[in-house]
Amino acid sequence: MVGIYKSFGAVEALCGVDFDVGRNEVVGLIGDNGAGKSTLIKILSGVFPPDRGELYVKGQRVDLRRYSVHRARELGIETVFQEQALGEKQPIWRNIFLGRQPANRLGFIDVGKARREADYVMRHVLRFTGGGISPDAPVRQLSGGERQGDEPTRALSVKEVQKVLDFIARVKELSKACVYISHTIVDVYSVSDRFVILDRGRVAARYRKDQVSERELVDILRHVRA
User: Fold this and answer.
1) pLDDT at res. 96
2) Smallest Cα–Cα separation from 9: which of 65, 51, 69, 66?
3) CA–CA separation, 117 and 138 (whole Å)
4) What predicted TM-score, i.e. pTM, was given to this entire model?
5) Edge-to-edge order in the sheet of strand 2-8
6) 2 - beta bridge partners?
7) In the chain, what are the helix, strand and coil shares in percent, each to the nearest 5?
8) Which domains does the chain have, with CATH numbers?
9) Contact status, residue 208 vs residue 193, Cβ threshold 8 Å
10) Cα–Cα distance between 155 and 161 in angstroms, integer?
11) CB under 8 Å to 90, separation ≥6 — which residues?
C-alpha cells in the first residue's frame, strides 16, 4: 500500500500511509483508538476505496476503481474481525463458506466438496481437537477460542488465547502473510516479525522484532499516545 489517503468528511483518517507485508511474515499493526488501523485494513480488504494511493499485490498494481471485497478475496486477502457474527445453529462448513460456497457445474452448492474442504481446514489449519467436532457440527459446540481468530483477549481464557496465537503461527508456517491487530502488546509481540505503529492517520514508527524489546515497544506507544 503506497501513499494511502482516506477522509470521512472533515476527519482525515489516513494521511499518506505506506504499508507492506511480505510472504511468510506477520506484521503487528499497532496504535491507539482512532489511529487509522481499521480504516487501513478495510481499504486493504476492499470495504472502502482510498481517496488517493496505490495498492500492489504480489508486485502487480491493483485497479482501485474496480477493487472490492470480492476482488480482494480473489487475490487471497481475508479479514477476521473481533466481533463474532456466526450462525450458531448452522453447521461449521456453512459458516466457513458463507457467501462463497463451492458450486458444481450446474451452479448448485457442492455440499460434498464444501464438507471435505471444511474438514481439512478444521484438522490441518485450525487444528480443532474437540471430541466429536465435524464439519456438520453446529457452531455452538465450538469453544470461544475456536470461534474467534482476531482479538485474543476479548472474553477468552488463557488457554483459548494461546490457541489463537498458535493459529497465527501456523498461518506463517504455510508461507502466508498476516496483519495482526490487538491492543494487547504481549500477544502482538509474541507472534509478529515486524511492527508498524499508526498515530492519527500517519505511520509513527516501524521496527523489526530484533530492533525493539516488548518493554521498549510499550514505552514507544506511550510516548506516541502522549
Assistant:
1) 74
2) 51
3) 17
4) 0.70
5) 11-17, 2-8, 52-54
6) 54
7) 35, 20, 45
8) 2-84+148-225 (3.40.50.300), 85-147 (no CATH)
9) yes
10) 9
11) 138, 139
C-alpha cell at 184: 494487547
How far is the C-alpha of 222 from the C-alpha of 65, rounded, in Å? 38
DSSP string, 161-223: HHHHHHHHHHHHHTT--EEEE-S-HHHHHHH-SEEEEEETTEEEEEEEGGG--HHHHHHHHHH
The region, left, alpha or beta by phi > 0 then psi within -120 to 50, assigned to residue 176 is beta
Taken in order 146, 148, 145, 162, is the CA torsion positive or negative? positive
Q: Which of 57-61, 152-156, 182-186, 197-201 has the lowest mean pLDDT?
A: 152-156
Give the pLDDT confidence score for residue 153 in this predicted structure: 45
197 class by beta-carbon count within 10 Å (0-12 exposed, 13-18 middle, 19+ buried): buried
Strand partners, 179: 27
* Pairing, β 26-30 against β 178-181: parallel
pLDDT at 142: 63
Place of cell 481499504: 43
Percent of the chain past pLDDT 90, that is, above it, reads 45
C-alpha distances (whole Å) from 27 to each of 7, 44, 73, 96, 159 are 24, 14, 19, 24, 23
Q: Give the mean model confidence (pLDDT) for residues 116-120.
A: 84
* pLDDT tens digits, 192-215: 999 999 999 999 999 999 999 999
Mean pLDDT for 182-193 is: 89
Given a contact cutoff of 8 angstroms between Cβ atoms, the answer to whether 127 and 143 are in contact is no
In single-letter form, the type of residue at position 14 comes to L
- 39-94 per-position pLDDT tens digit: 999 999 999 999 999 999 999 999 999 999 999 999 999 887 655 556 666 777 77
